[in-house]
Amino acid sequence: MPRRHDGLFDRIANFRSLRRAALRAARGKRAKPGAAAFLADLEPEILRLERALRDGSYRPGAYVKIELFDPKHRIVSAAPFRDRVVHQALCGVIAPIHETGFIDHSYANRIGKGTHRAVETYERYRDRHRHVLRADIFRYFPAIDHAILKADLRRRLACARTLALADTIIDGSNDQEPVIAHFPGDDLFTPHDRRRGLPIGNLTSQFFANLYLDGLDHFCAEVLQAPYLRYVDDFALFHDDPAVLADWRARISTFLEGRRLLLHPRKTVVLPVATPADFLGYTLGDGGRRRLPEGNLSRFRGRLRSMRDRVRAGTLDPVNARVRIQAWEAHAAFAQTRKLRNAILGPKGENGERRPR
Question: What is d(CA 218, CA 234) in angstroms, rounded to the nearest whole number?
Fold first, then answer.
């Protein structure tokens, strides 16, 4: 049993911590109305927020839902800026406590990890084995069970007020896509009675998503002793024998049932590693070859046109736009595909500057 930490709430609900959290939450978003209004009255806003947290009157505000269809249908939820400050303050204290228990090969939303390192680990395992089990969880964020998540938090946290704040954020989740599934021991009404689902887009949701699958990480790495890596709910296991991978798939499915999760029936497959794999925005071939899927190219072009229009209209900060473009360029550069990099960002001129198409 891991050590349980107490006395955390005063590190979250104090003026200095909340001010730092507000500045972190505002990075790249200072021009947005919610952030700008909060920062314009920063000290009084922080004092009001500190008072609400300490007297127990804090309640999350309403989310704004944004429905996306590219590359797939999903609902992103934007929390009020005030709540994002609380999310930053809470995660700043409790995430490092849980970080010590996470395995090395969980790569999402962690300092020093990320998609590039996940891809490199995938390629390293692929080059040593003949087959891969590629797996995905069916509607992961909408399926996360609130009672199980709260129990996970209590394995390492003993501070009652910090747990109450985390519970308030979880309980304040807005409705997500319905995931109706029955598991062993359920009656007809169990799926309707249990609260589930976390809003995509929250810092807390990213942390909670990692925590919720931490048990799966240890099961695959320590019980199955599999070459294994995970990025959010996308994970892979490697072996020379496809029959071993099929057995692991069945055992993982049983493990996930205990957490009220289902493997995605279409995206969970055993394949030879020679089969090109779409993983974290890249198509990975043998010999270390990586390319960007054509769909990504079209999306990048559309986003660039949209960003240029917003910069010209004054609704997007040029510095923020440049940071995003540099991130996309790094993503394209990692694919080692000059043709696609040029198609996205334009060829370099004589002075080394890009000329976007």
Answer: 15
Q: Are strands 64-68 and 74-78 parallel, antiparallel or unpaired?
A: antiparallel
Packing angle between helix 203-212 and helix 160-171, nearest 10 degrees? Answer: 100
pLDDT confidence bin for 211, thresholds 50/70/90: very high
* pTM of the full structure: 0.86
Rounded CA gap, 155 and 98, in Å? 10
For residues 53, 161, 21, 60, the Cα torsion angle rounded to the nearest 10 degrees is -50
CB 80 within 8 A of CB 87: no
- Quote the pLDDT of residue 193: 87
Residues above pLDDT 70, as percent of the chain: 92
Instruction: Say what the pLDDT of residue 52 is.
Output: 97
- Main-chain dihedrals φ then ψ at residue 228, nearest 5 degrees: -145, 145
The residue type found at 18 is: L
Torsion sign, CA atoms 281, 285, 290, 296: negative
Tokens of 42: 């920063």
C-alpha closest to that of 213 among 148, 128, 283: 148
Asked whether residue 155 carries a pLDDT value surpassing 70, the answer given is yes
Reported as a single tens digit per residue, the pLDDT across 236-269 is 999 999 999 999 999 999 999 999 999 999 999 9
Rounded to the nearest 10°, the torsion over CA 32, 38, 41, 43 is: -140
